[in-house]
Amino acid sequence: MKKHLIPMACLATFVGSAAADDQDFFTRDHMLGDWYGVRTDLEDEGVSFDFNNTFDYYDDIAGALASGGTYFGRARATINLDLDKLVGLPNAKVSVGGVSQYGKNYNRSRFGVLTNPSSIEGVDTTRFANIWFEQSLFDNFVTYRVGKVDGVGNFGAQPYGGTFMNDELVYIPNLLFAAGLPFDPAQQLGAVVTLRPFEDTDAAGLYFKGGVFNSNNLNAIIFDDIGTDFTWDGPVAIAGEVGYDFGDEYPGYAKAGLHHNFGTFDEVNSANRSRGNTLFYANVGQTIWNLNDSGERHVDASFSLNYAPKEEVNVYHFETTAMIRAIGPFEARPIDEAGVGLIAAWLSDDYSNSLAAPGYDSSGNEFTVEVTYKARVTPWFTVQPDFQVVVNPNGNAARDPVYLVGVRNVIDF
Question: What is the secondary structure of 108-148 as a DSSP string?
Answer without folding.
Answer: TTTS--SS-S-SS-----EEEEEEEEEEEETTTTEEEEEEE
